[in-house]
């Protein structure tokens, strides 16, 4: 199985690294930002650098949609897995439009509300996991399987 592991840097990347047991034995590539934490943590991994910053940058959102279109059509992963945040939106939407299975893990800090990225992803994603039971109670589409940390 081939995985596209899509994540912002910082805590989102650390959450993805905490899922290592689930992805380390699969063919994979990462999509993240070219910041020092990612360069260090992902040394030796196949990484595609996304356009940064994504916070309130319509220009980079559009660039990342085009990046997602090119990368996902070329790589044809079986699943797009994301731990957020902004870079997740184009990759989940484009992945879904190409018939690729999509999975999103909401950030551990989201207990009672869904993140902006989560709200944009929820309508199309195949599996949406919250890390708190309280979050899963908000919407029927949010699953709770425990915490990632």
Short description:
With 149 residues, this protein is α/β, with parallel strands linked by helices. Helix content is 38%, strand content 22%. It starts with a strand and ends in a 5-residue tail after the last strand.
Descriptive report:
The chain has 149 residues and is an alpha/beta fold. The protein has one domain (2-144): 3-Layer(aba) Sandwich (Rossmann fold). Helices cover 38% and strands 22% of the residues. It has seven helices and seven strands, in the order E-H-H-E-H-E-H-E-H-E-H-E-H-E. Strands 3-2-1-4-5-6-7 form a seven-stranded parallel beta sheet. Strand 6 (127-130), helix 7 and strand 7 form a beta-alpha-beta unit. Helix 4 packs across helix 5 (88-97). The longest helix is centred in the middle third of the chain and has 18 residues, at 58-75. The radius of gyration is 14 Å and the shape is globular. The model has no long low-confidence stretch (mean pLDDT 95).
């Amino acid at each position: 199985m081939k995985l596209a592991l899509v994540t912002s840097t910082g805590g989102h990347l650390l959450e993805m690294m905490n899922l290592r047991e689930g992805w380390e034995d699969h063919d994979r590539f990462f999509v993240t930002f070219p910041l020092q934490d990612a360069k260090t943590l992902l040394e030796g991994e196949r990484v595609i650098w996304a356009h940064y910053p994504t916070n309130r940058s319509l220009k980079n959102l559009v660039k990342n949609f085009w990046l997602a279109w090119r990368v996902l059509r070329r790589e044809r992963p079986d699943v797009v897995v994301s731990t957020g945040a902004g870079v997740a939106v184009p990759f989940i939407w484009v992945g879904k439009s190409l018939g690729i299975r999509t999975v999103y893990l909401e950030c551990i800090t989201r207990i009672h509300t869904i993140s902006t990225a989560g709200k944009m992803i929820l309508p199309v994603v195949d599996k949406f996991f919250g890390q708190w039971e309280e979050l899963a109670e908000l919407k029927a589409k949010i699953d709770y399987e425990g915490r990632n940390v």
